[in-house]
Amino acid sequence: NAGVTQTPKFQVLKTGQSMTLQCAQDMNHNSMYWYRQDPGMGLRLIYYSASEGTTDKGEVPNGYNVSRLNKREFSLRLESAAPSQTSVYFCASSAVGAYEQYFGPGTRLTVT
Amino acid sequence: EDQVTQSPEALRLQEGESSSLNCSYTVSGLRGLFWYRQDPGKGPEFLFTLYSAGEEKEKERLKATLTKKESFLHITAPKPEDSATYLCASNNQAGTALIFGKGTTLSVSS
Hints:
The complex is a heterodimer.
Chain A: E1 4-7, E2 10-13, E3 19-25, E4 31-38, E5 42-49, E6 56-57, E7 64-68, E8 74-78, E9 87-94, E10 102-103, E11 107-111
Parallel strand pairs in A: 2-11
Antiparallel strand pairs in A: 1-3, 3-8, 4-5, 4-9, 5-6, 7-8, 9-10, 9-11
Chain B: E1 4-7, E2 10-14, E3 19-25, E4 33-38, E5 45-50, E6 56-59, E7 62-66, E8 70-75, E9 84-91, E10 98-100, E11 104-109
Parallel strand pairs in B: 2-11
Antiparallel strand pairs in B: 1-3, 3-8, 4-5, 4-9, 6-7, 7-8, 9-10, 9-11
């Protein structure tokens, strides 16, 4: 039981490049989330998916898009990366009727 | 505005020196108060959920308590391996996501 997995672990992009961060969970959870974590800012929600087929904006959605591919997978896309998107990105999931979320190991992204 | 505030930002303890971390919240309709541990370079690890004032939960040297406005994470006789950043979170008013505090970084020296 791997829990929540994320790929890649590290990525360096140049301004304007695009990329997709992948997330998968094997806990049969309905809800999935994408956060970014910046020094002094804490964890901030980018997008979430309450169930397969639905996605909603969080606190900081600008510059990102998401896809809930199926119940297991939730991807985050940066269409045109900017230095302000340099951050550590975490994916999380939670079960129906439960608010506690379980996190993946993170992707450290640097945009130069 | 829904908000979660943690204090102190950083805490240094000697091994065996007990202390508490504070988390205050201003969320209407609290459905859960959550504590996480985060080690450097890793994702947050779930520790506890507290649902109502007066509730307490324990795990090894950690005990979490909840009042109507605050939660405390008490650390009894800490060891160096307890060094980490401890994050507190509550649900947002809509109940759709978690709001995180900025964390308390605990360092325990032997």
